[in-house]
């Protein structure tokens, strides 16, 4: 028979009668490189592993040929041979997975109802693919489903299996052709949810036909609004909104139950084993064909049918399109997309693949996705991504701990896609909200924090409970480096939001179409909430870690973005740093922080002045004016700073409630003689090194280090500027009126 | 601190929620921390200065370290400036990227509308009646064929035949979903 011939190597002649033994020995010879010597091959010395593998292979061959020829009604309990072969198949499947040739035989047996249900169930449960599943076997199985000789449970199990291994099927053209057949199975109430899931994966625009929509609506009327029916209807509505006129609720989190079932563990084992043996798949290059990856299902890449017949058909259809005026748009099958120029030529009638996940690693499709505004694409991608993230999260699902590396890679891919498209995915956002409360802060840390920085901006803020609270918990109990990483990713989050705001500021009309539904005041509130959150955690962190410079650097970096929000990003919001950040920076022991603080205060001033000018000149109709409280806060800080650095009067003049105002008696108790000057630019702890070096240069003979010699501050300031303290420079030039050269 | 305590007593009499009290407490904490920090740093720096003035071995060491600190600070500030510039460039690139994305989207929309218009123009050009009747008939035939295809599908399903076994029947079945042009 044909199947035997396929399994034989091409070198041996086909001898259908002497089936078993010839097959065995020929194959083993073939594996050794083509020597056809029946007697010798059995006696040949092989390494134990090879021998085991060969014998396993042989027994699998035997089992498969047995199943092919088995007659009806062989009882499992009574027949030892059947038991033996069944066990063989199961063991091999669960260890290594079945080769593509095996599926045809086993599916035929399982679905034809020849054997008892227990056998069929066991067979179906062992259908673990080692590499791919041939489409023809699935087509035959669907045919058997139509015959429906097997029991209901077996049918259901088959459907669940089909959904689980959907990505392993090598081609899908014939499956698409059987859409109508799958659709007819909706009739059966038990099969309905699984069939809906399968149809969800298979639906393309041309599958949506009015009579199918009517059928779904009838089913809904009969069974009520089931989530699976809803899912399919929503997908239909996205493809053809004019045909589906009913109202459907918005995005649902999960439509379909997770039906991975008994195959998942086995697929993981097989994949791990194969990864040990096979080389790493090559990186993606633009314009080259992609080999089918053997990795997990989320890494499936597009399979390109190499046959030339497909191309011919396409050309014929194109010619027909020219002639026939009322033809529908033949869309360009995306599997054939290989070069950028092809993308450009066909950009008006491109269709996304049924496996949306493959978009993530395909630069051409990403380019296309960058331009397209079709909601259905995003819905399908988000649905798939949300499912995968949830299922594969290594700390949310108990079994997944071993797959940390793969999950890390997957997160990395998602992040890169977000960077490519320059926008965040709401499915990622949902995933973060769900998984952050359970996160230990360790696993996939940099990937998670990077994903945090791409959370999309919306004026509905659930961020307090979903992001800020779990993040704060982790923040306070973590190491210094983690704290700095979190601050950095929050800064990037802020920058991404601000960028988004700037670009979409002009297109007010687009914002209605866009799903974000933002209003300016909503935006301002969300951004303000973020900044206040960072201010709060920074204050606490500085105290917890005892004011380290490293942490202060990241905090001040964040505020460097905050201080320029008005001028650089056109957001009418100005928030001063809290006192718990400002004063530690002002009193810091190192000049980097002090310099940065001076620069930041200078930028605040520039922004405030510009805002005041705009207000006065009434150039723009300002919806927002900076409140007098903002000005007051700024003034308080400036007074404190100038009092410290310049006029040596901080302790008297500082009016900030959390500031440095202290009585003279208290200060005298410190036994420091000249406490008044202890924070000016000569005596400041951060400036001490500079002062000492300046003294050495200016009075090289003097070894007494008399700091009071530094009276004329002009030279000293010039020296400081030469040492790189540009922030100090701009601060002093802008905020201090230097009438005299007094100290 | 005394004034703050007096203030607190005054406010307790008026009704305050726990949150307000907590907030006040935090503010007081920060105030205390700032003042303490100032005093500590003041004393520390004064002590360092006195040590340096003594001009002995220890002070030599302190001087060396201070020089190193100044050099390091300079380097850090320089790198900081470079990082700032690079970040600015990155921001500009990101903004460009975003605006290109917007432009791309608009362009695609334009392409779609243009193609739609083209099609409409094409269809409106050939108004000749004969052609219109032909097109109508073609459409009807197409719809009938679709109906027949679907009936076929349902017959085959209903007949419970194993269509995959017969190659010619199988090839027919696989054609039934295709839209006829």
TrEMBL record, chain A:
**Which coarse location class applies to the principal site listed for this UniProt protein?**
nucleus
Listed A to Z, the keywords are:
Centromere, Chromosome, Nucleus
**Listed GO biological process terms:** CENP-A containing chromatin assembly; mitotic sister chromatid segregation
Question: Does Cell inner membrane count among this protein's keywords?
Answer: no
Q: Where in the cell is it found?
A: Chromosome, Centromere; Nucleus
Record's InterPro entries?
Answer: CENP-I
* Listed GO CC annotations: inner kinetochore; nucleus
Disordered, as annotated region: 1-58
The family this protein is said to belong to: Belongs to the CENP-I/CTF3 family.
Q: PANTHER family attached here?
A: CENTROMERE PROTEIN I (PTHR48208)
- Official protein name in the record: Centromere protein I
Q: What is the lineage of its organism?
A: Eukaryota, Metazoa, Chordata, Craniata, Vertebrata
TrEMBL record, chain B:
Disordered, as annotated region: 1-20
Which GO terms of the cellular component aspect does the record hold? Answer: kinetochore; nucleus
- Keyword check for Coiled coil: yes
Q: Which UniProt keywords apply?
A: Centromere, Chromosome, Coiled coil, Kinetochore, Nucleus
In Pfam terms, one family for this protein is: CENP-H
Task: Tell me which domain of life the UniProt entry assigns to the organism this sequence originates from.
Answer: Eukaryota
Q: What's one GO BP annotation on this UniProt entry? A: chromosome segregation
Q: Which InterPro entries match?
A: CENP-H, CENP-H_C
Q: Which residues form a coiled coil?
A: 69-103
Residue span, Centromere protein H C-terminal domain: 17-177
GO MF annotation list: kinetochore binding
Location in or out of the cell = Chromosome, Centromere, Kinetochore; Nucleus
The Swiss-Prot or TrEMBL record describes its family as follows: Belongs to the CENP-H/MCM16 family.
Protein name stated in the entry: Centromere protein H
């Amino acid at each position: 028979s044909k199947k035997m011939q396929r399994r034989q190597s091409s070198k041996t002649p086909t001898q259908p009668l002497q089936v078993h033994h010839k097959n065995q020995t020929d194959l083993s010879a073939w594996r050794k490189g083509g020597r056809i010597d029946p007697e010798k091959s059995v006696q040949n010395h092989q390494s134990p592993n090879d021998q085991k593998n060969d014998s396993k292979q042989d027994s699998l061959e035997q089992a498969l040929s047995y199943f092919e020829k088995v007659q009806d009604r062989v009882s499992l309990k009574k027949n030892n041979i059947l038991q033996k072969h069944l066990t063989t198949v199961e063991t091999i499947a669960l260890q290594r997975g079945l080769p593509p040739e095996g599926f045809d035989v086993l599916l035929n047996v399982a679905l034809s109802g020849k054997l008892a249900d227990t056998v069929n169930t066991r067979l179906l449960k062992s259908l673990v693919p080692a590499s791919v599943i041939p489409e023809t076997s699935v087509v035959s199985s669907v045919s058997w489903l139509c015959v429906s000789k097997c029991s209901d449970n077996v049918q259901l199990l088959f459907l669940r299996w089909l959904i689980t291994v959907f990505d392993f099927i090598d081609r899908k053209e014939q499956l698409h052709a059987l859409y109508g057949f799958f659709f007819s199975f909706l009739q059966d109430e038990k099969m309905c949810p699984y069939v809906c899931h399968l149809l969800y994966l298979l639906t393309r625009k041309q599958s949506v036909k009015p009579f199918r929509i009517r059928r779904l609506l009838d089913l809904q009327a009969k069974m009520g609004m089931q989530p699976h029916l809803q899912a399919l209807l929503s997908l239909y509505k996205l493809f053809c909104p004019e045909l589906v006129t009913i109202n459907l609720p918005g995005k649902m989190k999960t439509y379909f139950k997770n039906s991975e079932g008994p195959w998942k563990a086995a697929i993981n084992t097989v994949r791990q084993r194969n990864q040990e043996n096979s080389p790493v798949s090559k990186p993606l290059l633009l314009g080259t064909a992609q080999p089918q990856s053997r990795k997990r299902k989320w890494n499936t890449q597009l399979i390109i049918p190499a046959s030339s017949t497909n191309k011919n058909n396409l050309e014929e259809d194109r010619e027909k399109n020219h002639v026939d005026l009322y033809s529908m748009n033949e869309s360009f099958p995306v599997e054939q997309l290989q070069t950028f120029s092809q993308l450009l030529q066909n950009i008006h009638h491109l269709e996304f693949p049924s496996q949306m996940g493959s978009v993530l690693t395909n630069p051409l499709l990403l380019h296309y996705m960058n331009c397209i505004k079709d909601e259905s694409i995003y819905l399908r991608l988000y649905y798939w991504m949300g499912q995968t993230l949830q299922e594969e999260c290594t700390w949310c699902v108990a079994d997944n701990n071993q797959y940390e590396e793969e999950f890390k890679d997957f997160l990395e891919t998602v992040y890169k896609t977000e960077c490519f498209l320059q926008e965040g995915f709401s499915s990622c956002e949902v995933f973060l909200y769900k998984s952050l409360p359970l996160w230990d802060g360790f696993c996939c840390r940099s990937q998670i924090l990077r994903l945090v920085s791409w959370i999309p901006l919306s004026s509905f803020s659930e961020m307090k409970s979903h992001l800020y609270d779990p993040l704060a918990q982790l923040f306070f109990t973590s190491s210094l480096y983690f704290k700095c990483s979190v601050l950095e990713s929050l800064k990037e989050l802020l920058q991404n939001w601000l960028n988004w705001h700037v670009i979409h500021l002009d297109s007010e009309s687009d914002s209605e179409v866009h799903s974000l539904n933002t209003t300016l005041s909503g935006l301002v509130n969300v951004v303000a909430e973020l900044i206040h959150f960072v201010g709060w955690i920074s204050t606490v962190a500085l105290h917890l870690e005892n004011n380290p410079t490293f942490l202060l650097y990241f905090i001040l970096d964040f505020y460097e973005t905050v201080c320029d929000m008005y001028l650089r990003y056109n957001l009418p919001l100005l928030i001063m740093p809290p006192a718990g950040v400002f004063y530690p920076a002002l009193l810091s022991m190192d000049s980097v922080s002090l310099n940065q603080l001076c620069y930041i205060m200078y930028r605040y001033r520039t922004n405030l002045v510009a805002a005041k000018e705009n207000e006065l000149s009434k150039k723009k109709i300002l919806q927002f004016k900076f409140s007098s409280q903002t000005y007051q806060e700024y003034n308080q800080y400036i007074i404190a700073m100038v009092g410290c650095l310049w006029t040596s009067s901080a302790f008297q003049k500082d009016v900030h409630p959390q500031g440095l105002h202290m009585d003279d008696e208290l200060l005298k108790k410190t036994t420091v003689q000249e406490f008044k000057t202890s924070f000016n630019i000569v005596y400041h702890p951060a400036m001490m090194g500079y002062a000492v070096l300046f003294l050495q240069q200016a009075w090289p003979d003097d070894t007494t280090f008399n700091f009071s010699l530094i009276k004329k501050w002009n030279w000293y300031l010039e020296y400081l500027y030469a040492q790189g303290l540009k922030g100090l420079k701009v601060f002093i030039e802008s905020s201090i009126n230097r009438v005299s050269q007094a100290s | 601190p005394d004034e703050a305590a007096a203030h607190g007593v005054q406010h307790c009499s008026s009704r305050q929620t726990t949150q307000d009290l907590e907030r006040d407490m935090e503010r007081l904490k920060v105030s205390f921390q700032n003042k303490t920090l100032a005093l500590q740093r003041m004393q520390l720096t004064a002590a360092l200065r006195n040590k340096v003035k003594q001009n002995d071995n220890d002070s030599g060491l302190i001087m060396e370290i201070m020089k190193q600190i100044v050099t390091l600070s300079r380097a850090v500030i320089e790198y900081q400036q470079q990082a700032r510039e690079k970040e600015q460039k990155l921001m500009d690139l990101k903004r460009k990227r975003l605006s290109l994305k917007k432009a791309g989207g608009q362009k695609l929309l334009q392409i779609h509308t243009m193609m739609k218009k083209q099609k409409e123009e094409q269809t409106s050009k050939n108004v000749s009646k004969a052609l219109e009747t032909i097109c109508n008939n073609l459409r009807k035939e197409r719809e009938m064929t679709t109906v027949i295809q679907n009936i076929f599908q349902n017959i085959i399903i209903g007949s419970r035949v194993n269509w995959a076994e017969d190659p010619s029947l199988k090839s027919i079945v696989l054609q039934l979903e295709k839209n006829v042009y």
